[in-house]
Amino acid sequence: MEPAYLRTVRDKERKNEMNHEESVGMRLFRFLGKVQFTMILLILGGLVMALGTIIESKFGTEAAQGGIYHTFLFDFYLFLIVVNLVVAVINRIPIQRHQWAFVLTHSSIVLLLFGAWVSRTFGHEGTLALREGDTLDRMTLVTADLEVRYGDGEAQRIPLGRIPRPGLLDTARSEHPRLQLLRYEGDAEFAVQLVDAEEEKGPGVKLHLDGKGMHFNEWLIGDHRSFRRKDLGPVEVAILVAHTEKTLADWLPELDSPEVTLRVSLPKGGPAREFRVPADLGKEFELEEGLKIKLVSFLKRARVIDKGIEEDPKAPINPALIFSVQRGDTMETHTVFSQFPEFNLVKGRVGDPLIAGVSLLSPDADEKPLIRILVHPESDRLWVQLAASTGRGAGHPLRQDKTVVLGNLGFEITLLQYVRHAKPDVKLAKAEKKGDGARWIQVLAGPEGDAQEVWISYGSSQSLLVDGKNLVLGFVPAVQPLPFKIQLEKVQADYHPGSSRASQYSSEVKIQGPEGQDRQAVISMNRPLDHAGYRLFQSGFQKARGGAPAVTWLSVSYDPGVTLVYIAFFALILGVGWYVKSNPVQTARKSQHQPTGER
Amino acid sequence: MKPISRSSPMKTPMKPLPRTLTALLLVSLGCVVSLPAQSVKDAKQMPVESTAGIAILSGGRVKPLETYADESLRFVSGKSSIGGNSPLQVLWGFHFDPESYRGKAWIRMDSQELKELCGFSPALRRFSFDSLMSNEGFKKVVERANSLRKEEKPLSATQKDALAVYAKMERIAGFIEGNGLTILPRPKEDGSWSSPADLKTMVDPESQAVQQSLARLADAWKRGDATQFSAGASSLATSLQTMGGDLYPARSELDREILYNRLHAYGWAWKAYLLGFLMLLLFGFGDKVWARRAGLVLVLIGFLFHSGGLGLRWAIAGRAPVSDMYESLVFMSWGVMAIGIVLEFVYKTRFFVFGASLMGFLALMFSEHLPLDSSINPLVPVLAHTSWLSIHVMTIMLSYSAFALAMGLAHIVLGIQIFRPGKTLVLRELSSLLYKTLQVGILFLAAGIAFGAIWANESWGRYWGWDPKETWSLITFFVYMIIIHARFAAWIGNFGLAILSITGFLSVVMTYYGVNYILASGLHSYGFSSGGMLYAVLYGVVELAIILGAWLRFRTAVQNKGLAREAAVPTPPKA
């Protein structure tokens, strides 16, 4: 047994079909208003919106806005919803009393979407950043502009929208060169990638260095003079290609005979004594009257264990020297490390200093360390070596994505990319860490066939020479003049007692205009100011620090569509309430088999 | 001693404490805990409740000391009483007798990696203040984490855990030194109150009076003199009141909060709901009117406690109690009961109270056992100074309540389908009620979305921004629109309505909880921790079993008119 209203619609359909009144076109039209179409739209919409939230959580708000919500397809989808609702109402003409709730709810949604369209087309929203004392008469919009200045001409602004779309830009001035937006990246940074060079160029490596509180991504190419060696501050990096195997062997000696020096200073002062290793190993020396020192043994790759240290051929280079100090009858054994001076235990003992200080030095210990990448002449094998300028030092094999610890510097090095014949390619790529990058546009400027490409980041400009004249392109936030001037007199924050949680931000402002509507007002969070059709909200605040005055951020909104939206909300709630009230519940009475109608 | 590679100090594996040492540590801890308390220093003898009503300014709000002690103990140990000590006993114990209390293993550490780094046995859950203070491994992690934080660099999970444990130690240190007990209503520059640690610099007569009272308490504690302690507590309260004047909260305000703390209103509420549900389940479906009345009365008693608790919380906080996850969950369970009771009286069936009591009990019990912060906190600026917060959140929560109630009714439908498939009329009526509940939910949801948009427009000038939370509330609206329209177009029958009411609630869960905890940190992150995953799978399996069972019955039952597709959606009155 069908409900009454379904029956009405079905009857009408059947009648129309029987009368052949309905052409195919008409039936198609009627379908647009059917609940089946609604279901398709609802399911589709739900899935797309869910996808949008997933994109937003993984790739950021801009990706979601640009990829889903602000696309032409999504606008078309919303248009289809409007069509569905409007035709659904038309299908039910003449409207009967029990269908008023239907008309109310469904047309309120149409009104809602219409209001949203009005807001988007005719509204503006932006921000005002004011320091105490500043006056502004224009606000910065969330949309972007391309500012074009050609030769001596006046600056012209081309609106790019919130998310710039590739395409030809309408300069509207015939003397301006042709401008085309090629690409937009919302969160990108420039990165060097190594690509294969056609010519016989040298090998290139891209490295990741981590240490001393910093990290670098660096690239080096074997035979570009300027790329062969780079000074990174705390360390230098260089790449060298061995010409022959023998050269390589020369550069990677095993440290059989390390030249390390034991430097001993005495409490009395005077010049430090130096002993060479391995030359002086095993020998005993007199430091002063009654104080003798003997170099017992040297370990190249020392590893600390419970009872002391031992040589471990698998451990990284960690030179250590064991020596003994004899004074009269007492003899003590000590260990000193070349790379960990803080663990050198020989400190002056209170009341009885034997030795003031001891250190084990490798040659050129004070020079800036140099990390060298050594490349085999023929095969694609690499080594990383920690060397002083003498070029001697043990090397570790360097393999793709494997991290090598350069022990004594506290550096780690990872090979990111290796290309045998490389040239650098500077590419704009998505920022490694979400949000770290900047907004960039790529513009093609100039006549077809002779145009130049340029990348411009948000907030900056680039200049090119086109047809002999200077072209300056700026990727800047759009600006909207306001019909009034606003001055920030004072801004302050109130805090919850006894905590650093702010309880309120407020700005005292003076507004002039339009046409003599001057006023003083206070704008605080959740207490916006209405003026001349604009609404100003307290949105952010920065305390005065150092010499800089306090700054307040006000967000500004001009929205002619919002009234329609509010009316639509009211109508929708009323309509749904009507449904709740009117649909009766089927109650089971023991005496009946049929469901009751009324309640 | 090992030379530690400077590049990655944490990569040097810490050798685990040798077994004997661990055993020694355990034994010594055990000894400390089970040492017969020396008679003069046992907190359990002291009438610490007499200090419950002393006001303290903490967390941006003036509250009774009992609340602060309770929040602190929960924060530090995860429990509301420990080793037989109440929170106030712990607080004053640390303050007056630090030597004994510092050795008690009460500070909770969950991270296994952190326990390894400190050389603690992974089987232990709580550690003493002293053992953490003297632990080199712990100190190193905390130092490294602090220096990273200063440089604004990211911290590893273990470092964050270490800082969390360190914060617990700082809270205890606040008890010991007294600087955490900001009970003196003498505001400093930043607005915070002073503490006993500041008394050294305060020489006016009011401060002297406070000083004397505190000395009295300390003395009473040392001598184990309960009467003296009570006297000292009341003189302390009086002297603080004198010091604070207008700044000090009224006795009634403090008592009100103490009442709220001790009443455990929500606990009584869900127990009453559970009893009511069982009463109705076991006896309410025959002709036993007494059972139905009793069930209803039990539910109403629970609802009274529930409402009382919410009302008290509203008064204490000075705003509607819907500002965080805990509060909104408690409110949602109240909403389930409220809607259920109202609809019960409107339609005079047995099912609304039955379904509501089940869902209400589950939701309220959930709120108590999830690791949610139940303390009352002030609001951030963006939420304050507007009534739209309360209106929007309460309306949305009521819609979730209605959908939860609908899910409860849907389960009852499936339950009847499995166990009593012949009850056609009952099933038809129940399905009709289910449809009505969904309509109520849609009404509140539409209103809630509208209010949220209005609030956003009044607050920052934009009524819709496709924020994930906004978008998911719209998706939920779409989901329930699909259910309603599918039933209207007879694409599904009453059986399908029940199934979809259960699965549709997933959208509510996603909007309410998933957006914050799953999306916010990326889809494949700790939103599904190992524990959470287990519960989610268990829930899925149980639901699937119920749905499958009901469907099988539906297919094989001969008399199936109750849920058949032809059963009409209730018709509105003719024009």
**Form type of chain B:** elongated
The count of strands of chain A amounts to: 33
N- to C-terminal distance of chain A: 19 Å
> Which percent band covers the strand fraction of chain B?
under 5%
The secondary structure category of chain A is alpha+beta
Q: From the helix content, strand content and strand pairing of chain B, which structural class follows?
A: mainly alpha
Spans of at least 5 consecutive residues with low confidence of chain A: 254-258, 347-352, 590-599
Largest inter-chain contact set = A-B, 90 and 85 residues
How many structural domains can be distinguished in the coordinates of chain A?
4
Molecular structure report:
The complex is a heterodimer of chains A (about 600) and B (about 575). Chain A is built from 9 helices and 33 strands. Mean pLDDT of chain A is about 80; it is low at about 255-260, about 345-350 and about 590-599. Among the domains of chain B are: about 40-220, no CATH class; about 385-575, no CATH class. Chain B has helices at about 20-35, 65-75, 85-95, 100, 110-120, 130-135, 135-150, 155-175, 205-225, 225-245, 250-265, 265-285, 290-315, 325-345, 350-370, 390-420, 425-460, 470-490, 495-520, 530-555, and strands at about 55-60, 60-65, 105-110, 125-130. In chain B, β1 and β2 form a beta hairpin. The radius of gyration of chain B is 28 Å and the shape is elongated. The relative contact order of chain B is 0.06. At the A-B interface, α1, α3, α4, β29 and β32 of A face α17 and α18 of B.
Descriptive tags:
heterodimer; A: 599 residues; alpha+beta; 4 domains; 10-stranded antiparallel β-sheet; 5-stranded antiparallel β-sheet; 9 helices; 22% helix; 42% strand; elongated; disordered C terminus; B: 575 residues; mainly alpha; two-stranded antiparallel sheet; 20 helices; 4 strands; 65% helix; 3% strand; disordered N terminus
Give a short synopsis of this structure.
The complex is a heterodimer of chains A (599) and B (575). Helix content of chain A is 22%, strand content 42%. Chain A is an alpha+beta fold and 599 residues long.
